[in-house]
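Q&A log
Question type: sequence-to-structure
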Amino acid sequence: MNGRIVQMAPKVLDIGDAASYLAMSVGTFRAHVLPHVRQINLSARRRGYLVSDLDRWIDRQVGGQGGSVSVSTNPWDAMS
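Response status: OK
Response body:
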């Protein structure tokens, strides 16, 4: 081992981090996202949410299926 620290992105987030990941409050997360994603029991009182489920939820909100994002053909869009 060469002493390097490797940081890996988490696969599971608690409710506060999951809400932050989606750029919303915990209350909004509970109301709009929680009914549509799986909860994982992290302990007797803590629940977690898979990042992959959160990604799928946000893709559905923009009408995608998790694939590539369409690019506008309007040249003015590229100038912003």
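Response note: Helices lie at 15-21, 26-33, 51-61.
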